[in-house]
Design a protein that fits this description.
With 345 residues, this protein is of the alpha/beta class. The protein has 2 domains: 55 residues, DNA polymerase, domain 1; 277 residues, TIM Barrel (Alpha-Beta Barrel), CATH 3.20.20.70. Helix content is 36%, strand content 21%. The protein has 11 helices and 14 strands. The strands form 3 sheets. It has a 10-stranded mixed β-sheet with strand order 3-4-5-6-9-10-11-12-13-14, sandwiched between helices. A two-stranded parallel sheet has the order 1-2. It has a two-stranded antiparallel sheet with strand order 7-8. Helix 9 links the parallel strand 12 and strand 13. Helix 1 crosses helix 2 and helix 6 packs parallel to helix 8. The model has no long low-confidence stretch (mean pLDDT 94). The protein binds iron/sulfur cluster. The site of iron/sulfur cluster has 12 residues, from loops.
Length: 345
């Protein structure tokens, strides 16, 4: 059996682990604080522990620590893309975006993705494995340490379908919001899903204050099927019902992500149909000019088409924004940097 990873233990588990090795309960608090507040990478840094305890932790435990494979900085807006190497040599991608209201980090939840959305680079090589809670947390910790800047918002929208890694993502939320750790507010966390209905309902029942962002991308079932194979399993009607359920249970407004693909889902009729679909919900629509990837022939909608689409939704009383394209000059699309890195090595 492998060693226990200290970074993946929540506060209660840390207490239980310390009890197991005969240490006093307050040691758990100290170690948890070193790892999750002071962002220590190894027991050797935990200077208020006895030498004996530090040696025991070093010898018998792991502590997840991602290593940086590459960092790219956008010359346009300062966005930074990080490629991290995991212990098993897989690589994952995370992004730091700087906004007026604070820094936001977009993290990956899996190595690759099995969902097969047609416009997405992350799924082209398939799915390799789920990330642990520690591997998700450490993307944020590492970026905070490397940039020297505090992270205030976290979005789980990088590579992977977060709700396909449910137990780990839930533990990640719990640890990220723990007062003994970074203590990020639930309201500052957004999780995306392509529409795994049973998990959306399960998450609703947890009654967290996390924002749910549904990757919608089409206004009817036939068109969604063309873009997102998950629609074979869960129909658009079922997904919309799950969104309503999430709002009822949590009171959190749903965000609909809608990638505009030139000539595919950006026509006037699409906007009308989308407005009718989402109008009954308390929601926000985020329009995303699709980032072209070389493996697919999708093109971005023209600026005028995007503006018209937005205006049409607004006239129907829908709350809508166009997502700013962050880091376009550094392989802006999700999964693109990881793919180009893997092609090089
Ligand atoms: S958009 Fe998200 S769910 Fe769809 S393939 Fe890409 S990473 Fe997976």
């Amino acid at each position: 059996m492998g060693k226990v990873d200290l970074k993946t233990l929540d506060f209660q588990e840390m207490k239980a682990e310390m009890a197991k090795i005969g240490e006093k309960p307050f040691r758990a608090g100290q170690i948890y604080q070193w790892i999750h507040q002071k962002l220590a990478d190894s027991p050797n840094e935990m200077t208020n522990l006895s030498k004996n305890l530090r040696d025991t932790l070093t010898e018998h435990y792991d502590c997840t620590c991602l290593s940086v494979a590459e960092v790219l900085t956008s010359q346009i807006d300062g966005t930074q893309k990080y490629l991290f190497e995991l212990k098993d040599q897989n690589v994952i991608e995370s992004v730091l975006m700087r906004y007026k209201h604070g820094n936001s980090v977009c993290i990956s939840s899996q190595v690759g993705c099995k969902m097969g959305c047609r416009f997405c680079a992350s799924t082209i090589g398939g799915w390799t494995r789920n990330l642990t809670a520690a591997e998700m947390l450490d993307q944020i910790y590492r970026i905070q340490k490397l940039s020297g800047e505090r992270v205030s918002n976290v979005v789980v929208m990088g590579t992977g379908e977060p709700l396909d890694n449910y137990d780990n993502i839930l533990k990640f939320f719990q640890m990220l919001t723990d007062e003994h750790g970074l203590n990020i507010s639930q309201r500052n966390i957004t999780v995306s899903t392509c529409g795994i209905v049973p998990r959306m309902k399960q998450l609703a029942d947890e009654q967290l204050q996390i924002t749910l962002a549904l990757s919608l991308h089409a206004s009817n079932q036939a068109k969604r099927l063309e873009l997102m194979p998950i629609s074979n399993k869960y129909s658009l009607d079922e997904v919309i019902d799950a969104c309503k359920y999430y709002f009822e249970k949590t009171g959190r407004r749903i965000t609909f992500e809608y990638s505009l693909v030139g000539g595919v889902n950006d026509k006037k009729e699409d906007a009308d149909e989308l407005a009718a679909l989402v109008k009954p919900l308390n929601c926000h629509v985020n329009l995303i000019p699709v980032n072209p990837i070389k493996e697919r022939d999708y093109v971005q909608s023209q600026k005028k088409v995007i503006d018209n689409f937005k205006n049409k939704l607004e006239k129907c009383g829908i709350n809508v924004t166009i997502r700013r394209e962050m880091g376009r000059d550094i392989n802006g699309a999700c999964g693109q940097l990881r793919r180009s890195y893997m092609e090089k090595v």
